[in-house]
Design brief:
The chain has 216 residues and is an alpha/beta fold. The protein contains eleven helices and eight strands. It binds erythose-4-phosphate.
């Protein structure tokens, strides 16, 4: 399972990429706007911090505009993945960009039928939004499970990128389903390795070791 960071915060990406456990990064227009940096400068810097795919989202709403923006973004670095919304225009852009061997992440996916169309359009990744579905009383993880089953049935190559992940339990459930990628905020990344029993146990081991006077 790959773990991407869902962040446009350079300091946070640098800090967590240093663990060697970050396989890629996803950004979206809201995260980029909050960074206060120029888009191309930000994406250039992120692509240097992580070797894996870095999603950069188009803002045009028509296929022609998305394709032009996508080509421009893909020129920034080899690991740029062009992110397009799951609209009919986004699907057309996905098909065109994928045909040019540009990685495409189709985002804002909220249904199985949308995910099937993303796969048929040649998407490298499809991003179902788990948390936002949960927020409106639906079962976000059920959608991940359904997509995984249907993609397996038809042997689609598109990777499932579970997005809008809000807490470690989402990661746990997505991993059990066998999702290809989870993209998680820095806070959730830190929660994955933090456990109070680990801290308590280490503290006790260190106290006993200190008392013993032993050395390695
Ligand atoms: C990632 O690609 C998405 O843009 C992101 O996961 C959305 O998360 P949110 O629903 O917490 O904003």
């Amino acid at each position: 399972m790959m773990i991407f960071l869902d962040s446009a915060d350079l300091k946070e990406i640098e800090e967590l990429a240093a663990t060697g456990l970050v396989d890629g990064v996803t950004t979206n227009p809201s995260l980029v706007a909050a960074s206060g940096m120029s888009f191309s400068e930000l994406i250039t810097k992120i692509t240097k911090l992580v070797e894996g795919p870095v999603s950069a989202e188009v803002t045009a709403l028509d296929a022609k505009g998305m394709i032009a923006q996508g080509r421009k973004l893909a020129k920034i670095a080899e690991n740029v993945t062009v992110k397009v919304p799951l609209t009919v225009e986004g699907l057309k852009a996905c098909k065109a960009l994928s045909a040019e061997d540009i990685m495409v992440n189709v985002t804002l996916c909220f249904s199985l039928n949308q995910a099937i169309l993303a796969a048929k359009a040649g998407a490298t990744f499809v991003s179902p939004f788990v948390g936002r579905l949960d927020d409106c009383g639906a079962d976000g993880m059920q959608l991940i499970e359904d997509i995984a089953k249907v993609y397996e049935t038809y042997a689609f190559d598109t990777l499932i990128l579970a997005a809008s992940i809000r807490h470690p339990q989402h990661v746990y459930e997505a991993a059990k389903i066998g999702v290809d990628v989870v993209t998680i905020p820095g806070k959730v990344f830190r929660q994955l390795y933090t456990h109070p029993l680990t801290d308590l146990g280490l503290d006790a081991f260190m106290k006993d070791w200190k008392k013993s006077g032993l050395e390695i």
